Amino acid sequence: MSNPENLIEKTLTSNELFSGMFMQLMHDTVELPDGTHGVREYIKHGGAVAMIAITKDNEIVLERQYRHPVNQIMIELPAGKLEKGEIELEAAKRELQEETGFTGNDWTCLGHCLPCIGYSSEKIIYYLAKNVIPGPSKLDEGEFVETFTIPFNEFVSMAYNGEVTDSKTLAGIMLYQGYLLKNH
Questions:
Q1: What is the mean pLDDT of the chain?
Q2: SS3 string of 62-128?
């Protein structure tokens, strides 16, 4: 096997083309492993958290939300972006309560994923919240979300039959199933 270090690209220049509310569009010139130069355009993202929130009845808390880039109503795990300097677990607790109204005291980090490695630096940290209880949500201004719960096995079936296509949510299912295999 070859040395994987031989695949690394060296950044020569990095330019911010656009700075938005939670991301920047970057244009970098890199030196490729063979010494030639290439261009890399990508989104620099501050990171996010996603929550697998399970009720005492083994139902998962989900959201329906319209997503403008794909012009669709999507079924998703609750999730939200990290504020600069925010502790990840605190962000997960905050986002779950704000978006869904659910809260819980039994939290476990399940891992992370990099959902769009070809064009984004976004890293999503996943947390499991067990035995969550409902309460009032505190949606941000301009945020419209429908929260619902269904049995976890039914949710997995929805993913397998194509009703759930959000990559963050599909990765969360995998991480939670891995957790269940290790802990049961």
A1: 95
A2: EEEEEEHHHCEEEEECCEEECCCCCCHHHHHHHHHHHHHCCECCEEEEEEEECCCCCCECCCEEEEE
Please give the C-alpha separations between residue 179 and each of 53, 93, 102, 110, 126, in angstroms, as whole numbers: 13, 19, 21, 7, 12
Q: Are residues 31 and 100 in the same domain?
A: no
Each residue of 154-175: pLDDT tens digit? Answer: 999 999 999 999 999 999 999 9
Are residues 84 and 40 located together in one domain of the fold? no
Query: What domain range includes position 23?
Result: 4-45
124 and 174 co-located in one domain: yes
Active-site hit among 83, 141, 143, 154? 141
41 is catalytic: no
